[in-house]
């Protein structure tokens, strides 16, 4: 019997990168998975196809979690398809570094709407269905602790997310729902490739500062999330777990 047999998970922003790896890992451990996407239906469909080809259960659902009705619709789709909800992984996020002089209202609102408001709205909708043993995992970033230059807005959203994680862990604890955060270090994904970071001098700089001496891969993050989703982590809540090869 797999660790997540009988469980149902929603993974936001799961059409590629870390989110896709998380969706596959949860399905491998037995969960039925709702693969959320905002724009890349082809990517989400590919993740669903990979899961079902391995004998798992998954559906793709489009929703912009920064909009209340769409976040609620995402959760409703999960419950309608699979009858319950046990796990929410808040992975949807945007990131764009900008120097202070370049920060605009649009830049600020885009980041905080998705990275912070989206987490609150998705969690609000999901919490109505989560019962004892439910698990919420928020994907944060090591940027909140190392605070690199030109990341005031992005790092600010992740700092807010870490505080929200602690607050909600306390708020939902009486219902025996656990809330934790995972903070990846530098990870090679489609996003970091598109941004020109993967394979660049910037990546080399990150690796040079990483005690384990390499960049992260999406599966490095997914395994930790799968642990937090399972009963193996039944005594873990309110924690922020850095998964960055030793970077602090």
TrEMBL record:
Pfam families: adh_short_C2
Record's keyword annotation contains Oxidoreductase: yes
EC number annotated for this UniProt entry: 1.1.1.47
Signal peptide: none
Family (UniProt): Belongs to the short-chain dehydrogenases/reductases (SDR) family.
Protein name, UniProt field: Glucose 1-dehydrogenase
Alphabetic keyword roster: Oxidoreductase
GO molecular function (one): glucose 1-dehydrogenase [NAD(P)+] activity
Main enzyme class: oxidoreductase
Lineage: Bacteria, Pseudomonadati, Pseudomonadota, Alphaproteobacteria, Hyphomicrobiales
